[in-house]
UniProtKB/TrEMBL annotation:
InterPro entries, per database record: PSP1-like (IPR047767), PSP1_C (IPR007557)
Species of provenance: Collinsella tanakaei YIT 12063
Pfam families cross-referenced by the UniProt entry: PSP1
Biased composition (Basic residues): 522-532
Name the UniProt record assigns to this protein: PSP1 C-terminal domain-containing protein
Length: 550
């Protein structure tokens, strides 16, 4: 098998193979090679390797030697000469009025000739230009027309992605790029977004075309119906780099699922077997796949599905998140005893015994209490007993009102009122009793107030705070009937009644007095100036008419 070494030249679109001829050349070295155009210098891109003879289309050209420091300096001088020649190249093109764009000038390493590169849309007759260039540079001239892609590769630059241009970075032979590749990758068909610097379709459209094509051949089509435990779902979008599908349920929930996790139903397999298709597109998502998805919406939907099917799923909380009471509360214990008493049982039979024992303990405590000490009240009392006790206390207060002072009665009232903690909703009879007790307390208060006004009970001082009372002011009706207030009718122009009061003061006895006709002022009429123009220098009289002056 022949041994070859690839070499990259500055103005070449791809690497060329050469025969190393036993020269120790490695990747990264600069080599002097013999080509069809002459002697050139290039960069070795890889170490020598063997290739089959069938892959060689023509005999290999030899590698002359590895470039030395003098060869590299000479190559730099030739590159500077090519850059300086671009100015004269553009000048001569404009002088000959040719429709072409100068791109670059390359001087061969051996000095055989100079290659002038240009870009043009159509064929150009450059015979006169070749004569002018040969006469000016005194060298053999070779004209080479290139396309816009090669032009962009030679000039170089950066693409919209921020990376170096693919044609300048990777090189290689340009392969055709079609608009079908952009459609297959679901890209917007906007020329400004899918076109490169050269104005043609971007080269990178071809890099991922095969991956998109393979994924779409295995995945279900867009807007296809997929069966899931939560109902029907529709394929909404693809994520080709990760090979995922975005599905949307009928309830509106959206989730992602991998293509490898989807399965084919029996009907799908049967249909593909009948049609003779080797592989079928998956159309089903199992519950195991949904449980792997880290989505709270999907987890709640699965819990609701289990509840509808009668599966005991609990409250959906972890054991560490639950709050468990240490034992039944007193209220819960009392409710249980009441239920047991209602339906019968051991607890109901033991309840009367417990009540009797409690009453016996209470009686024993009363007997053992010292004389003069009042027994402690029970914490809970029935509403009927409270109302009866309040009525009895009210009757005792009315019977012994003359003997006790108002301070003592107020203290008893405060003692008779139940505390707020014991208050509860009263029945109709209990409410009536409470109203009667309140009425009796009001009577007692009024009686105590009357006794204080008469001087009774002066020895006992009231502990109540005296509140400021409003002064007794007669109503408007009483003031009108007594004649203290007189209502006068307001007329326009009387200054709110002030002028009328000054002219005719109201009599002291409140009787109405008729004014004399000669004392009443005539109502002055408002003069209205005539809009007619004055004639003969006349002046307007009192009637408003114009008259001539004598």
């Amino acid at each position: 098998m022949p041994v070859v070494v690839p070499v990259k030249f500055a103005f070449a679109s791809r690497d060329l193979w050469f025969d190393p001829q036993g020269i120790d050349v490695l990747a990264g070295d600069h080599a002097i090679c013999s080509t069809e155009r002459g002697t050139e210098i290039g960069l070795v891109t890889a170490d020598p390797f063997d290739v089959p003879a069938s892959e060689l289309a023509a005999p290999l050209k030899p590698v002359l030697r590895v470039a030395s420091d003098e060869d590299l300096d000479h190559a730099d001088d030739l590159a500077r000469m090519g850059e300086d020649a671009m100015y004269d190249f553009r000048r001569l093109v404009e002088q000959n009025e040719l429709d072409m764009k100068p791109v670059g000038v390359e001087y061969l390493f051996g000095g055989e000739k100079a290659v002038f590169y240009f870009a043009a849309e159509d064929r150009v007759d450059f015979r006169q230009l070749v004569r002018d260039l040969s006469a000016f540079f005194h060298i053999r001239v070779d004209m080479r027309q290139i396309g816009v892609r090669d032009e962009t590769r030679l000039i170089g630059g950066y693409a919209t992605c921020g990376q170096e241009l693919c044609c300048a970075r990777f090189g290689g032979q340009f392969e055709p790029v079609s608009i079908r590749m952009a459609k297959e990758q679901d890209l917007p068909l906007n020329s400004s977004k899918i076109s490169g610097v050269c104005g043609r379709l971007m080269c990178c459209l071809r890099y991922e075309f095969e991956a998109y094509k393979d994924f779409k051949s295995r995945a279900p089509k867009k807007k296809a119906i997929i069966d899931t435990p939560l109902g029907k779902a529709r394929v909404q979008e693809y994520n080709t780099p990760r090979e995922e599908l975005i599905l949307r349920l009928e309830s509106g929930k959206v989730f992602r699922v991998s293509l490898a996790d989807m399965t084919c139903s029996d009907s799908c397999k049967k249909k593909s077997a009948e049609s003779g298709c080797s592989s079928c597109r998956p159309d089903c998502v199992t519950r195991d796949v949904l449980e792997k998805i880290e989505s709270p919406d999907i987890a709640l939907a699965l819990l609701e599905l289990d509840r509808e099917r009668g599966v005991d799923v609990g409250d959906g909380l972890d054991r560490a998140d639950r709050i468990v009471a240490s034992g039944p509360t007193p209220r819960r214990r009392r409710m249980r005893e009441e239920e047991a008493a209602k339906f019968g049982g051991g607890a109901a039979a033991d309840k009367p015994k417990a009540a009797k024992s409690a009453k016996a303990k209470q009686a024993k405590a009363v007997e053992s209490a010292p004389e003069g000490a009042t027994p402690r009240r029970r914490r809970r009392r029935n509403a009927g007993e409270a109302a009866e006790q309040a009525a009895q206390q009210g009757q005792q207060r009315t019977s012994t009102q003359g003997q006790r002072g108002p301070a003592r009665s107020q203290a008893s009232d405060q003692q008779a009122q139940p505390s707020r903690r014991r208050r509860r909703h009263l029945s109709g009879e209990e409410r009536d009793d409470a109203f009667r007790a309140a009425a009796m307390r009001d009577e007692v208060k009024r009686a105590s107030k009357a006794s204080e006004d008469k001087g009774e009970g002066a020895s006992t001082k009231s502990r109540r705070k005296h509140t400021a009372q409003k002064p007794d002011v007669p109503s408007v009706a009483e003031q009108l009937s007594s004649g203290k207030v007189k209502v006068t009718r307001r007329r326009p122009g009387d200054g709110g009644g002030v002028a009328a009061e000054k002219k005719s003061p109201a009599p002291q006895d409140g009787s109405r007095q008729d004014a004399a006709p000669d004392q009443q002022a005539q109502k002055r009429r408002r003069r209205r100036r005539s809009r007619k123009p004055k004639q003969d220098g006349g002046a307007s009289n009192g009637d408003g008419a114009s008259s001539s002056a004598e």
